[in-house]
Write a structure and sequence with these properties.
The chain is an alpha/beta fold. The chain has 9 helices and 11 strands. The chain folds into 2 domains: 110 residues, Mur-like, catalytic domain (UDP-N-acetylmuramoyl-L-alanine:D-glutamate ligase, 3-Layer(aba) Sandwich), CATH 3.40.1190.10; 133 residues, Protein-Tyrosine Phosphatase, Chain A, CATH 3.90.190.20. α8 packs across α9. The radius of gyration is 21 Å and the shape is globular. The model has no long low-confidence stretch (mean pLDDT 95).
């Protein structure tokens, strides 16, 4: 990891104080690098108010140049959600502001920006239940990000091709968010075993993605979410995660 960081730091080797470098203040390594680089650091942070850059205060993303504070956008007005997307937006906004883009244009662009297909992609709301397609969640770390982004109680559809991943860390983030697991694919027993080992027992097994959608539809209550985020590759049942995601959306829209 140290070698990786050193290589990345070389990108800024020829920068001067007249240049800017945008860094995540919440990352201790990057924060320390900001104190060493010759460039002028511009930070973004979800956890701290920074001296120069963008930061999250409540639900408002703000920018400060060290003297004046400016509201950029309320995250509740974004089509993207989740902590990782808040960070992405803050980084992008910090870059744009340094390049002279007016804050209003930045806010309008963010407000209308939709998630990429298959990455925590909103599909529809039916009978008060929201459906999200995260078929691009092909490993436990990606699914952890998706779970952490869910603002309501959620039924998680997971399982697929076995890449010999471990699912313990994923189960740990369930908390009060994940209320039911609907499992399919080669890894369904492995995921179920990891869940049961941590005391999570509300698990249902299905044979097809269509059945997973139907079971989730039957179990979900108004105000809840159904999330497809398999934590696995798709190759046991589908040609690609794109095919899996498109079929999920098709089945949801056919309900």
């Amino acid at each position: 990891m140290e070698n990786y960081a050193a290589v990345k730091e070389r990108i800024a080797a020829k920068q001067t104080k007249d240049d800017f470098i945008v860094l995540n203040y919440d990352d201790e390594v990057l924060r320390a690098f900001g104190e060493q680089t010759s460039a002028t650091p511009v930070y973004f942070s979800r956890k701290h108010k920074v001296e120069h850059g963008t930061y999250l205060e409540g639900t408002m993303i703000k920018y400060t140049d060290g003297e004046k504070e400016t509201d950029v956008i309320d995250v509740k007005d974004m089509l993207l959600f989740g902590a990782h997307n808040h960070e992405n937006v803050m980084a992008a906004a910090a870059i744009c502001i340094q390049m002279g883009v007016p804050v209003q244009i930045i806010a309008d662009t963010i407000r209308n920006f939709k998630a990429v297909e298959h990455r925590i992609e909103y599909v529809r709301t039916l009978d008060g239940v929201e459906y999200y397609n995260d078929s691009k969640g092909t490993n436990p770390d990606s699914t952890i990000k998706a779970i952490e982004a869910m603002p309501k109680k959620t039924i998680l559809i997971a399982g697929g091709y076995d890449k010999h991943s471990e699912f313990d860390e994923m189960i740990k983030v369930f908390g009060d968010t994940i209320i039911e697991l609907v499992l399919l694919g080669v890894t369904k027993d492995k995921i179920a075993a990891a869940a049961r080992a941590q005391g999570f027992g509300n698990i249902k097994f299905v044979e097809t993605l269509k059945e997973a959608v139907e079971v989730s539809r039957a179990d979900a209550k108004e105000g809840q979410i159904v999330l497809l985020s398999p934590a696995c590759a798709s190759w046991d049942m589908f040609k690609s995660y794109e095919e899996r995601g498109k079929l999920f959306k098709q089945y949801v829209n056919e309900l």
